[in-house]
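Why should sequence recovery work at all? Because a backbone constrains its sequence more than one might expect. Tight turns favour small or flexible residues, buried strands favour hydrophobic ones, and helices have their own preferences. The token representation captures these environments compactly. In the example below, the structure is given first.
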């Protein structure tokens, strides 16, 4: 009887509370318009500054900053489809249009450069496929 009590009222609640990791990141900010941020110098600089600890972060910036290391390490396996789409757009934009800022972010969050390599390979493959179809 005592064992049933321990299992029912102590172990099960602890496992429910703390024993399992969240399977996805919050989707609360999935509707943030990433294109609007990339097209607005003031917003873009603010987000980059947030990610580099140079200025304060918005709530979504704090969330992003908290999740980036895990997302990069796990190849974004907890990301929603929208988050993957936004991450790809952000990385593409930063590498192509703001290489100095990308280098700073990469040094902090992806020092082995694997995401730059992955992006450049996919860009090369896409270009090769277009050339072959002509």
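From this structural description, the recovered sequence reads:
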């Amino acid at each position: 009887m005592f064992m049933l009590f321990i299992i029912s009222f102590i172990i099960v609640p602890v496992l429910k509370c703390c024993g399992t990791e969240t399977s996805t990141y919050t989707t609360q900010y999935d509707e943030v318009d990433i294109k609007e941020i990339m097209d607005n110098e003031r917003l873009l600089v603010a987000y980059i500054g947030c990610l580099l600890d140079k200025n304060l972060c918005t709530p979504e910036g704090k969330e992003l900053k908290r999740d980036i290391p895990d997302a990069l390490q796990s190849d974004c396996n907890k990301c929603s489809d929208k988050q993957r789409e936004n991450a790809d757009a952000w990385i593409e934009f930063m590498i192509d249009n703001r290489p100095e800022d990308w280098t700073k972010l990469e040094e902090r969050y992806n020092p082995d450069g694997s995401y730059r390599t992955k992006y450049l390979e996919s860009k090369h493959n896409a270009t090769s496929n277009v050339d072959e179809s002509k």
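A few observations help interpret the result. The radius of gyration is 20 Å.
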